[in-house]
Design a protein that fits this description.
Elements (H helix, E strand, L loop, with lengths): L3 H7 L1 H9 L2 E4 L5 H9 L6 E5 L22 H8 L4 E4 L4 H6 L7 E4 L4 H11 L3 E3 L12 E5 L7 H12 L7 E5 L12 H22 L4
Helix pairs in contact: 1-2, 3-8, 6-7
């Protein structure tokens, strides 16, 4: 049976929670595509994905769905691979966030590197947001942590997020997935062993939160 080993790990009652859960995933690149794959294969198939991009050759070292689909719209390609998901071909901006109804989703997974929308989303929906720092420039997945955004270090990207949140008066408890590893290059080099691990961490935290809170929408 497809989900036999999932049920053995989580038990039937919790698997029923997965089946009834609704999630929204913003960004399906090197991090988001792996989060999607892990969650879908665990039985959470009611997932809405949002992305506006098309696949480029430079995506092929780290993004699920990119091989054989250069030039194609990411969400449409992933819909073929994960037929039960819903797709929105849209760039995520502050305005889009303000106008979109997130109330029906148990969690909002944000896997995009744009600073301003990330800050805006955290401020509005911090209790439902599961997000990451940037996953590029690193080679050691064992350095990935999930901790208070106020206690992160060795990460210039998340430092910018912290600074903007403080400037805008946000001081709530909020955790983020980040790597404490120092960058291994200046430009945006990337290694799927790390970018994919960020996505798997995002999926794991989502599952753990669902089990802890028994949260279904």
């Amino acid at each position: 049976m497809k989900y036999d080993r999932v049920k053995k790990l989580f038990n039937n009652d919790n698997f029923e929670i997965f089946k009834k859960t609704r999630l929204i995933l913003l960004g399906v690149g090197g991090v988001g595509s792996f989060a999607l794959d892990a969650l879908y294969n665990t039985g959470i198939t009611n997932i809405t994905i949002v992305d506006f991009d098309t696949y480029e050759e430079s995506n092929m070292n780290r993004q699920l769905g990119s091989h054989g689909h250069i030039g194609k719209i990411k969400v449409e390609v992933l819909k073929e691979k994960y037929p039960k998901i819903k797709i929105i071909n849209q760039k995520v901006t502050d305005t889009w966030i303000d106008n979109f109804d997130f109330s029906s989703y148990a969690y909002i997974l944000y896997a995009i590197d744009d600073i301003n929308p990330k800050v805006h989303l955290i401020k509005k929906y911090f209790k439902k947001v599961i997000t990451t720092s940037g996953s590029a420039k690193r080679i050691d997945p064992s350095k990935i942590e999930y901790k208070s955004i106020w206690d992160t270090y060795n990460d210039p990207f998340i430092r910018k997020i912290r600074t903007k949140l403080k400037e805008q008066g946000f001081n709530k408890k909020f955790k983020v997935i980040f790597s404490s590893e120092l960058a291994s290059c200046v430009e945006k080099g990337s290694f799927q062993g790390v970018t994919g691990s960020f996505g798997f961490m995002m999926a794991s935290i989502t599952i753990q939160n669902l089990l802890k809170n028994k949260k279904i929408t």
